[in-house]
Amino acid sequence: xxxxxxxxxxxxxxxxxxxxxxxxxxxxxxxxxxxxxxxxxxxxxxxxxxxxxxxxxxxxxxxxxxxxxxxxxxxxxxxxxxxxxxxxxxxxxxxxxxxxxxxxxxxxxxxxxxxxxxxxxxxxxxxxxxxxxxxxxxxxxxxxxxxxxxxxxxxxxxxxxxxxxx
Length: 166
Fold this sequence. Notes:
alpha/beta; 8 helices; five-stranded parallel β-sheet; Rossmann fold; single chain; 5 strands
């Protein structure tokens, strides 16, 4: 397993279990860290709180971020990530249980690379994990060098919800 990780930020235990099962089924080659609320996500990202001592220079490869979180919402996490020089280039895949386009649009305005309605079954979660794996496989520079992310992102086309939902 690669030492780089994907950070899953999700407060619903059933959704965490589905996503982790999808990662296992696909033999996902990277570590997966789980933060169960917005505050815990920021602690992980900044190496504080229960993640005190985590190497802050090793940003996650990608963050899968639920927007409707307890304690601190995903939009606030996203704002803080985008305002930090070491985290602003991390790829963020945002999920929301809301069918409201304005929620998804708001996440994209704040810097989410893609935002979609949260899946409600294993096969849909599996489809998301497949897309994440394809993204990381297609851009090995993302895995090898976090400094390459800004250049890679300039060459990416904005994905659509359809391209991420399976």
